[in-house]
Fold these 4 entries.
Entry 1:
Amino acid sequence: MHLSPDSIIIFQVGLVKVNGTLVFTWLVMLLLSFGSWLVTRRLSTGAEVSRWQSLLESVVTLILGQIKDVTRQDPRRFLPFLGTLFIFVGTCNLLSVIPGFLPPTGSLSTTTALALSVLVAVPIYGIADTGFGVYLQNYVRPTPLMLPFNITGEISRTLALAVRLFGNVMSGSMIGGILLAIAPLFFPVIMQLLGLLTGIVQAYIFAILAAVYIAAGLKIHESQVSPENNATPETQ
């Protein structure tokens, strides 16, 4: 039994290996791309909409509401990134109920790549709000001695985000494998049903944590801009 798709080598050419993680990731990407095209090809602004459009609008509205509750800002600017994270992780976890499919999120390389995306997104949103120079100044406040600690905090936060998702998905696979060996007719069905629920929960937690990190970075940078710096000559 393979608990991680990294252990499955599809083919190898020299030093280049294509393992199960890559193949399953490509399958999820193709499925999401085709599904997006299928749902959005006939969007309607009238009173009558298709069931797929209603489902899409419900999902988007739900994600926008959650982002707004966390960031307290216009959620539309964060929707492409955070929405993609949630849908990708959720789809990977939900497809794990299909026999033979191993979720890419059960690979530490995948969860690390997703966490690195969050690590890059945080300064991108911060720089877009405050500018490059002002953003970098926050790493040396209140003293330049804080620079290594701030950098270490960013890296450790990213590592924790990757390991958390990997550990939760891996533990679910291990428990399912153990129960499958003990009682192959009854417990696996229950575990698959629980897996559907926990898969969505893990996707939600990952996306929410990403939103929290981005919102925390924006609030820190906004708090650094004091009213005195924004005061006009008349108010001074």
Entry 2:
Amino acid sequence: MTYIDIHTHNPNQIQDDTISVFNCYAADSNCVNTSLLCSIGLHPWYIDENYENDLKAIFNFATHDNVVAIGETGLDKLIKVNYELQRKIFISHAQLAADISKPLIIHAVRSIHEILFLRKHFKSSPPWIIHGFRGNLKSMSELLNNGFILSFGVALLNNKIQLEDVFKSCPLDSLFLETDNSNVSIKTLYKKASELRNQSEEGLSSIILTNFNNTFLKNKI
């Protein structure tokens, strides 16, 4: 079976039996010139006075064959970076993703409603993926009804009933798994996910592989 890790910052997570999408920061874009599948974007935490140069780098590298997604980008209301600037940069990423038909990987902290609002302006765009989703059933429903895909990470291992219920309720064709910046193996997440869904790891793997092909590789196969 093949494991899919759609968002990782950790090169150690890239294994022979795993298809990983490595998160590449605009300021450190060397990974774009390797054989790794990657995403490229400007995370809201790292927006600074050089953001215009970072955006230029993202636009320059975005069409490389091994860049399969734009991001991560996003909106975060718990950081000091000017929110309007975050919004401006997020929209730039969203427009780029739409223009080159690649999915958008999103970091969202207390900003789901704003992101839902912005999605309405990009209805025909490729999927938007909320990574590391930890929201409630209401948030999940609103996002799914607007065509989002949800990616679940290591929070699934914390035995929180609310998140487990959300995961068990998420349609299988609208979810992914990810390791993000953790050292937890994607295989550990698949084991936990298959237990929560009362499904074999092989069956879950097959479904997520189909999701991956349809979302990330649609223009390549």
Entry 3:
Amino acid sequence: MKELMSKVAAVTLFGFLFAAFPQETEASGGSSTSAPPVASLTPREEAAQLYNEGLRIRDKAWKLEEKLAGSTDEGDRGKLQGKMEKQFGKAVKNFRRAVKLNPEMFQAHSSLGYSLRRLGRYEEALVAYDRALALNPYYTEAIEYRAEAYLGLNRIADAKKAYMLLFAGDRTRADELFEAMEEWLEARRVDSSGLESAELEAFAAWFEGRSELAAQTAQIRSDSGPW
């Protein structure tokens, strides 16, 4: 699935100016005035800069993913896959540095989790997501993507709990998770990855029931209008 992440508002960088003043020199060879020193960044400002750069790198990975999805040449797909993973690896480094400088930046923790998860490093991703949600329990982006990491580890019960939480509070994110669940279910039917067949079928039955309920409630919301 081409994963969708809502646009994350860029963290405002403030408190520093890069102003250069021309050097004044007297024709007679007299005194000259040099430019004042450039103000250094605070740790929080540097963290914000690293976070925003990490987002730009992540976007490059997304563009490579789009090309990968449209390619049918196996050799080309292999190269694109490698380039995409390399970009996610670079993003990981940026986000790690950002949270080291500003441990309270929950968005950076979540983005770190996202990049780690896209590299298949699910356990590490969960650590990052857990930290993001410890800082902001209502950050539904992290709730949804953490649930996808749960799926990667076959932690079905945890993924279902996350879906129910999102269904009650953020239907857009719940729908995104439901799409990921559908793709996961199809993939596990091809390769169980150690999941017991009984567990898989039980999840399939739950998924079918939730699908019907989601369709019904979506119709009710549509009929009732904005009020």
Entry 4:
Amino acid sequence: MPEASYVYADVYYLVNFLMDYTVLWATARFARFRVRFWRLLLAASVGACYSVLILFPGCKTFQTFFFKFLTSVLMVALVFTPVSWKRFCQTLLYFYLVSFTMGGAMLGLINLLTNIPATAIEYLSLPYFWLGAAVATAFILGKWGAAFLQRSFLQGLLHIPVKIKIQGNEVKIEGLVDTGNQLIDPLTGNPVIIVEYAVLAPFLPPELRKVFTEGKGEVDFEQLVKGIRKGEKPFSLRLIPFTTIGKHHGMMIGFKPDEVSILAGEEILKTSKVVVGIYNRSLSSKGNYRALLHPDLLYTSVA
């Protein structure tokens, strides 16, 4: 008689929970969502519970495509709603993209490192090595996959109209999503948009303009702050440390705008949690864009 095989429900639950959590996290990265930790935990728990449920006798009905699809829709909804119907469908496609890529990577490694045909995989217990390979694949996709696609294939599509409100005035410019721009405001942790001084100059206080026209690269910060305080309207200045080749400890002058609006596809993303860094040179030799956007500005927050 063949030996009886055992499946431990708690171990099976934990394995599926880890995989579902990683897939949902990678989906959020691809779809540019900021999601709550508890939402990921809840959705991964639902997926893991479903995986355990279909092991029990009498639950074959739940193994059909309809229930599998319904469970995946529920998991995505728990993490990413409320959003528009179109945005939800896009996110669901990302979910399946990550899931299939993770599963394909696992099967590919099994075929590469063993002599067992893929059709026999379902009869085998899942070694922890393959689980680690699957989770690592999803992690790599979420961590670097979206950024790689942006740099390699989508650079021409990442020119995005940007509108900056400065003390009642509006500046409309073309921005480029730059995955290399990781500047954040050390005071608030908000992302930084780097904008050419030439387009901002008409809306800046006189003392701040003098820094860029007469400063010759050196900034007298004490004099600058005194000059700004003399103005009729308050102007929130920021000093943003940065590192470049040949200048390891630079300091960029920035300010907090009233609001920034970004046209991302058919959506308009508005935020005041951003800092504008002033760059006193041209960002594009052809003038195709006048600002570099922090990639985090394209992420949609979900409550």
